[in-house]
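Task card 7
Instruction: Convert sequence to structure tokens.
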Amino acid sequence: MTTDSRATTEASATHERQTSLWHNHDFMALWTGETVSAVGSSMSFFVFPLVGYAITGSATQAALAGTAYSLGQVAVKLPAGAMVDRWRRETVMVGSNLLAAVLYASLVAAMVVGVLTLVQLVAVALLAGVVASFFGPAEQAAIRNVVPTEQLPTAFSQNQARQHAAALVGPPLGGLLYALTRWVPFVVDAASYLVSSIAITRIRTPLPAPDRGESVSSMSHDIIEGLRFLMSRDFYRAIVAFACVANFAGNLLFLVLTLKLLKAGVHPAAIGLIDTIAAVAGIAGSVAAPALIRRVPNGLLAIGLGLVLMVAVVPMAFTNDVILIGLLLAVATLGNPAANASVTSYLVATTPDHLQGRVHAALGFSAMALMPAGPVVGGALLQWWGGQRAMLAAAALIAVSVLPLLLSREVRMLPTPDRWVGADTSG
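Output:
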């Protein structure tokens, strides 16, 4: 074979690997259904405080639904992951979607009759968070079943695009539907879960419960096994430490930024433009993510994400210009999909099948452990130090979050996916 023909053959093979995911019926069924559901969920999250405020007239009580959703996710994440590793993944995903559809339909029924209370609204949000804790690990495990290892980065990049697109489309669509009639967004969200359920049933690849051998263990043993596996390698420990501190800093940052701008007299609609700019940048970053993951050592992507975010936050502390802040945040957001998709892909590729649910849940729990404290600490720093110093404190926390990545040799040396040779998937 000549050099030219060999290069042509290799280029053709590379092109086939890069495009085959679009022809993967099972992944596209899962991704399309969940994209519809993600838009519906984004609408509901936007509408929850509006409905809460309409019921109570209190901004504080209106925020309870959002808090309840996060609490529901965190409270059951570890046992949910253990149970996902005992059941058929398809059953978990379809069942979770159907339960969510019933929950949101109950809000519609109560609103139509005129008997909706804050207690019901908060309870539905709490239970919806619980349901999401089951769906997430099951979906990640299912992706490993239907997507070849070399296509995992592209698959998770598309999931990142889904999240950013939902964040861009969901709130304005929810506001539009809420303006028509308050219960319409919840009707659409309930229907979106049904669409996702139907799409999942179209998956052809079997998604059975993982093979656990003959052993029967307790729930606590299963949870500890997942946590032990996550803490067993320097790479995973570094990612957990980074995610925990970075998510806390992010929650603190956005609350301080919003209140700082409000105190400066910036209109809330203008502040919302920052989220729009960031969402557009996230979609663009998701499109570029597969190419970045193929070309840039994946450990450097994770480290670079933290460093860029830290550098972008510092000038935000010294300006109230919404466009400038949005552009700085866009720069920080562009690399986020590639970093997240590469780390998630590596974790999925190197985790045994029977531990997928527990490890995903353990990572999610660890990453979210400090998040609820972010707004509280941010509010206190804003009151004590003022907006500028509070923003700089957020930048300092982000810098601290990057240290575990810089100190981890496994993170620094993580190559591109084509060199993930010898990944340990035994267990």
